[in-house]
Write a structure and sequence with these properties.
It is built from 3 helices and no strands. The protein has 71 residues and is mainly alpha-helical. The longest helix has 23 residues. The protein is flat, with a radius of gyration of 14 Å.
Length: 71
């Protein structure tokens, strides 16, 4: 929470555009949370393929935004 808010303030302070910063925060936070949760509390059963597909799609979307951000 606080670290994400601090990151947003720093990003905007360094001239980040809201079209880039906000989607990265909104897509990045769930990805980091999911990865941390899977590491700290490994699942007892194999996650659903749709769950894994969602992680992949969110990662690809974040990557596309980073590589093709409006200038």
């Amino acid at each position: 929470g606080e670290l994400g808010a601090f990151g947003a303030i720093v990003a905007f302070g360094l001239g980040g555009h809201s079209l880039v910063v906000m989607p990265l925060i909104l897509a990045g936070a769930p990805l980091v949370n999911t990865a941390a949760s899977l590491i700290v509390h490994p699942p007892t059963t194999t996650p659903s393929p749709l769950f894994l597909l969602g992680i992949v799609l969110a990662s690809v979307g974040t990557w596309l935004l980073l590589t093709h951000a409006p200038r």
